[in-house]
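Page 42, continued from yesterday. The earlier attempt failed because a stray header line got pasted into the input along with the sequence. Redoing it now with the clean sequence only.
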Amino acid sequence: MHGLGNDFIILDARESGLEMNAARAVKLANRQRGVGCDQLIVMRTSENSDVFMEIWNTDGSRVGACGNATRCVGRLLLDETGANSVSIQTDAGDLSAVAAGSDISVNMGHAATGWQEIPLVRKADTVAVDYTKGPLSAPGCVNMGNPHAVFIVDDADAVDLERWGGEIETDPFFPERANVSVVSISNGIIRQRVWERGAGITEACGSAACASVVAATRRGLINHKATVRLDGGDLQVEWLADGSVQMTGPTTFVFSGEVAL
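This time it went through. Structure tokens are written below.
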């Protein structure tokens, strides 16, 4: 499946008890020798939610949150159960998904903005962090179940994200690495490009879209909600009064199959 081109292999291990590890995730995610994906998702049983969602990056690292994958898993569960809403447990906390017309709307949980919560290597004002790398400076930092550095620039499309994304992701300033976004804002629309931690440039990143709305709101550039325009398409995002972030967008089923492991 994919959400705005951010694509996933989704394995249903609710009955099989499939073992997943870094080496296996890397092999399955390889676009030349496997199906290929931005992230590999394993659906497992959960005692307190409808499903547990396990998330692996293409480099074999395990991550706590992925907004586009949450919408895709939400779509599978809503279609499977016929329920009005479903709950999805992740390493980063419990999320919920509901149908919104042909789209899926997911509450991505609380946006954390403390420097220790991101985390950063030292105390900093996360509205505009005292940090510079090449032409990029003063990111707004947010944790949406994973760390984000959002750089607000004049023209997101003019930034050489291929050049700077990886350097910023792995900078020791971000002890758990970071998802790196460049955004420009015009008429309530956030134009965003994303270097995703452990995956590189992706067509879309749901948690990054949420982080961009939080960062731009804290900077006084928007009022809590916006259309976020990613390379793969648009998401509707709102930072709610309770501190959580609601994200709405499409999902696409590509194909199903089997693999011998």
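Notes: The domain at 110-246 is CATH 3.10.310.10 (Diaminopimelate Epimerase; Chain A, domain 1).
Reminder to self: strip header lines before submitting.
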